[in-house]
Amino acid sequence: GGIITQTPKFLIGQEGQKLTLKCQQNFNHDTMYWYRQDSGKGLRLIYYSITENDLQKGDLSEGYDASREKKSSFSLTVTSAQKNEMAVFLCASSIRGGNYAEQFFGPGTRLTVL
Amino acid sequence: GEQVEQRPPHLSVREGDSAIIICTYTDSATAYFSWYKQEAGAGLQLLMSVLSNVDRKEEQGLTVLLNKKDKRLSLNLTAAHPGDSAVYFCAGPNNYAQGLTFGLGTRVSVFP
Fold it and tell me: Do B95 and A59 touch (CB under 8 A)?
């Protein structure tokens, strides 16, 4: 089995601050994803990456950057944190991309912006 | 792209009873669905995935039914127990042929 690790678990930021979230997986999966989870809105795809150094925008990419430094890691940057923002950011990976992929999720990073 | 609607948003069931969650979808060409479980403070755990050529799938006390005519997907938790208390999400392919489109979730509470 494998595991997805997300750091930090909790992130408190200030309005306008640039914040970086990290994700590591040891499944040796090709594709990695970042989702944002808001209460009452389900999960929305921010970015995904099908291989090292690849980057694809999802539905919610505005206000975010991402980087796939190597196959096992995928980081997400909030370029300018919005006041009173609260959300959970979930990283996921899958062995192959496409509609048939089964995704494995990390435990999430909980963001609060003061 | 696919849109997924999920109901009910909340579900309370007595231990030992069944719980049914329903999702409806829009794209008749959707080839793949999955169900996830999210326990408090945790990420999503894949429960089961089904291809569109499957009408029924059962695994470990869970039954997934796919009605392609009505574009309806259901998850049946048979003989619920306290460990089943969680939020459940259905998911289908999204616009990008990568990633998933999720329903808004159903919070299931199992009481003694």
Answer: yes
